[in-house]
Every structure is written in C-alpha cells, then in structure tokens.
Design a protein that fits this description.
This protein is an alpha+beta fold and about 250 residues long. It is built from six helices and five strands, in the order E-E-E-H-H-H-H-H-H-E-E. Strand 4 and strand 5 form a beta hairpin.
Length: about 250
C-alpha cells in the first residue's frame, strides 16, 4: 500500500436535489456524504472537500498508472475512518434529517439528537413546552423555518409530479400520432394492392390517391378446333377391259 500523507478533518453531509435516472429533479432532497481532508502542516490553506461516493469509485486494475495508484491509496486510507463515522451517523428511516436544513447549526442539531430529535417532522411534533426545555436559542424561529421548509418540499414534490405527468402525456401523444401515421401508410398500401389485384379483371377501379383504367379482357383459354371427319380410304379406279386379255 502506497503511503498517504493526508489528515482527515471531518465527515459531513450535504443536502442535494434528488434526481431520477434521467437526471430530472424529483422535488425531493437527499443527503450525500462528504469528507474534508488536507496534507499535514497545510490545514489552513490546502483543505479539500470531496464527495465520498466519488472517492470510492477507484479501480484496482491499472496497477501501472500513478494517478490511479494514488487514488486507491487515498481511498484505502479514508475508507476505515469513513466506516467508523458512518456507523454512528445512520440516517433516519423516515422523515427529513436535521442535516438537510441549512438553518440549523451543527451544534444545535447535535443538541437535538441528544434529546432524541432526529428529523424536522419530529421537531414540529413537539409541544411548545417541550421545545422550551431544549434550551436552544431561537427555537421558535427554527420551528417556523422547519415548517416552511417542509411546505416548500411538498410544493416542489407536487410540481415535479405534475411535470412528470405532463411529459408522460406529451410522450403518449407522440406515440398516438406515430401510430396514426403508420395506420394511414398501411391503409394506403392495402388500397394500392387491392387496386392492382382488381385491375386484372378488366374493371375500372379507383383507390387511394391514384386511378387505374384498363380494357383487359379475361383470357378464357385457346379456341376450340373443328372436329376432323372420320378417315375413309379413297375409292379404287376400275380396271380397263383391254387389260383383261394378254397380247399375243
């Protein structure tokens, strides 16, 4: 393993727009894991922030490539630290995580988590008296912003669903138009075929966008030959009387 000269400062999360497989905004927010690190002795001027998922996409086949080797070594160094951090920072199954709200400071979110509050929904479900006991400055304003944040999310989700519906309807219209054109072309082809078939019977036919006229007479076979008379042998000529006597 190649030596890595970096120091991991912290892992954190960023709220980003969630997109579908086509890259369209779904109107929802998802959290992505990030890491902040820097070379030792340069923590005040060379701090790097990078998405953990990007760092994890390293290949192990290009062994002769120095850039790939450095990327693998960096991830091999960061990976166990990330896994340890991730084990204690699992995202809630339901609801909007506190880290998704940029109006809640880190120390405020940590205090809420210590009191068992993990999502914005749970924060809004608390009574005023319970919120006052949290001893967090500006809690009323935080709750008001959380309510507006969730309402905006609902509006974005609704707008995204309406956009998806409109796109689906537009695609269906295109498909129907394509099917209509295919039907017209097939119908025209059938008409042409019927016209050519009918033309062989000597009829005048019209169909589609063309006109066929013909005076072809249907062939009824070769003409009949007249019957030949029965064979009769020709009559023999009678012999002359002179031929009955021999010359002496």
């Amino acid at each position: 393993m190649e030596a890595v000269s970096i120091r991991v400062l912290e892992f954190f999360q960023k709220a980003e727009k969630k997109r579908d497989i086509n890259g369209n905004d779904t109107g929802e927010v998802e959290l992505t894991d990030w890491v902040r690190y820097a070379p030792p002795g340069q923590l005040d001027r060379a701090v790097i922030e990078d998405k953990v998922s990007r760092l994890a996409r390293v290949g192990y086949n290009a062994v002769d490539n120095p850039a790939f080797a450095a990327a693998r070594a960096r991830w091999d160094f960061i990976k166990p630290l990330y896994e340890n951090w991730k084990a204690g920072n699992e995202l809630p199954v339901t609801g909007t995580p506190l880290a998704a709200a940029n109006f809640i400071r880190v120390e405020q979110a940590e205090e809420m988590k210590r009191k068992g509050i993990r999502t914005l929904e749970e924060l809004l479900e608390m009574s005023e008296g319970a919120c006052d006991k949290l001893n967090i400055v500006g809690m009323r304003e935080i709750r008001a912003q959380a309510r507006r944040f969730l309402e905006a999310q609902d509006n974005n989700r609704f707008a995204a669903s309406m956009k998806a519906r409109d796109e689906e309807i537009a695609n269906l219209r295109i498909q129907l138009e394509d099917m209509r054109e295919m039907f017209i072309r097939q119908k025209d082809a059938d008409n042409r075929r019927d016209d050519y078939v009918a033309a062989g019977s000597g009829n005048v036919v019209t169909g589609g966008s063309h006109h066929i006229s013909t005076s072809v007479t249907q062939w009824e076979g070769p003409p009949e030959e007249p019957e030949k008379p029965a064979y009769q042998p020709a009559p023999k000529a009678p012999r002359s009387k002179k031929s009955l006597f021999k010359k002496k």
